[in-house]
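I'd like us to work through together how a protein chain folds, taking it slowly. We need material for that, and I hope you will provide a protein of your own picking. Go ahead whenever you are ready, and we will take it from there:
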Amino acid sequence: MNTVLFCSSLSGAAKLVVAVAVFLLTFYVISQVFEIKMDASLGNLFARSALDAVARSTKPPRYKCGISKACPEKHFAFKMASGAANVVGPKICLEDNVLMSGVKNNVGRGINVALVNGKTGDLIDTRYFDMWGGNVAPFIEFLKAIQDGTIVLMGTYDDGATKLNDEARQLIAELGSTSITHLGFRDNWVFCGGKGIKTKSPFEQHIKNNKDTNKYEGWPEVVEMEGCIPQKQD
């Protein structure tokens, strides 16, 4: 009887030892796997952080109006585009401020004009003049009233030339334009000049309406231009 009890006790103790051993082994394996996963997660986290830091350091900087390089001191950054056919209006941006665009709902068929103070960069006025179905006289009066030292930005939309006459063309030429003398029906044109300028402006792009090369049916491709306008000094 005692022998049977003793053997049973040994059997129970062995089972307990085995159970404890299995538990400890299972706990060890689980802890090792968890630690590996934790290490992998931390590694991935650090790797992503490092990649993000590299991406931030290599991302090209953004300059005012989205131009390709920063302007020097005492210069105004600008970017502009003509209209696209008779669908999308022109856009004029100066110092990261959109002065005219379809989104602002202040553009229209013809020649779109923004006047800016040459000293401060402040917007003076925006207008558009219909050179297809409108009258050139209001445009001429507007051009004559521009004050010395004013920056003048112009962009065409649809047709900016049909109603232009010699007087209007001459007034725009005096602002520094070269292409205005031969701007034709549905040509695309952008220009930045100034009242009182002594030389021809370097800021002008013009593309002719040509059925053989037009990007759109009846209209040439959009013309774009960017640059840095010298601030007027006292």
